[in-house]
Amino acid sequence: MHIRTDDLRGPEIHALLDEHLRNMRAISPPESVHALDLDALRRPDITFWTAWDGDELLGCGALKELSPTHGEIKSMRTPEARRRKGAGRAILAHIIEEARRRAYVRLSLETGPIATFQPAHKLYASFGFAYCPPFGDYVEDPHSAFMTRLLTTTQET
Asked: Which residues make Cβ contacts (< 8 Å) with residue 8, sequence separation at least 6?
């Protein structure tokens, strides 16, 4: 598996992000969809990565700078056929390491409710994320769950 910074130009990533947005819009009301489109992911405060096995896209994830000490995980997604094979775990570990390199103190994320997103909640919890109140510009929402963790110098596995 190779993780690389992505310029968001390839048709594979367009297809995966389209799938992601369609899925989020199908299961959440419009005001509760916080997934970013291609233009939003190209903002200078966001770094976007993809994971590959040769020419096969395994997944993606992004890191948004909220402040000089606080980052937000965005756009974590793996194709349906590639789920539970380690790509999400590898991308999450990569994002955490980059957040540490940037000297962030805190890393947070917004995801869907546990009833719909239980595997994602378990993945984030396995990396030390815990539930928290809304952060940044988010507000309480029954269609969202918020998680955060402090960053240390220890390495996750």
From this structure: 14, 17, 38, 41, 42, 48
